[in-house]
Amino acid sequence: MVEKLLELRDVSCARNKDENIFSSVNFDVNEGDVVVLQGKSGCGKTTLMKCIAHLNVYEGHITFNGRSPKSYGIPSYRTQIFYVPQRPSLLPGTPRDFLATIASFQSRKAHSKTEGGDLNYPMDVAGAWGIDEELWDRNWSNLSGGESQRIALATAVGLNTAEVLLLDEPTSALDPTSSSQVEQFILDELKSSESRLKAVVWITHSEEQGRRVGTRFLRISASGCDEDARMPET
Length: 234
Ligand SMILES: Nc1ncnc2c1ncn2[C@@H]1O[C@H](COP(=O)(O)OP(=O)(O)OP(=O)(O)O)[C@@H](O)[C@H]1O
Fold this sequence. Notes:
Layout: E1 4-16, E2 19-30, E3 34-38, H1 45-52, E4 59-64, H2 69-72, H3 74-80, E5 81-84, H4 95-105, H5 120-128, H6 145-158, E6 164-168, H7 176-191, E7 199-203, H8 207-213, E8 216-221, E9 224-228
Parallel strand pairs: 3-7, 3-8, 5-6, 6-7
Antiparallel strand pairs: 1-2, 1-4, 8-9
The structure holds adenosine-5'-triphosphate.
């Protein structure tokens, strides 16, 4: 039987006290899913991802393996339901600080690749994507958009704590070759028995990318979300 990972029931998020960005969002994320989130600019895709990661206030219920985020402890929950922001360059400090902070929150059920707090694997992953090790010690604000995206993704994938990755336009700053390298790596991790990764929620404005990676397609609007059988033409 397919394992249900995330369950969203009647999730809504307020823009202000009189208005919601969206309401009545209901869907599940199951093992093996790559859920592509679509919807017009400003409809709330990023906001919804932040609600799932428990980075935004929301109404309704979100559970992971049938339990509330709080029951895991929020830092531990966030290592398992791992949000990769669209612009990591806004993070404070350096990527190495970020890696150390996340690693300190990682669940005790660390998998073989990161057992014993091995922080080299994220650097190896980033290295395979063309990131020199010295970039890990620069401030995020001094990295290019594409460098910071690759480092944030390599951290998320390489720490191997995430069962669900929440990817917010993860390749928007990458050239097509780097972009397809990253896409393929993530899809391979999803299939690998070595990896804890079980599902991905992916925001992209690229129809081609959506078709390449997606197994399910959800459209967000103010009144909720609808599932499409395939990536719709815009
Ligand atoms: N911190 C905030 N305070 C108030 N409004 C916000 C905040 N963050 C986002 N919004 C508003 O919430 C709405 C949804 O924004 P969000 O970034 O989630 O949209 P999106 O669908 O991801 O957009 P895009 O496709 O352009 O990235 C927008 O109208 C935005 O202006």
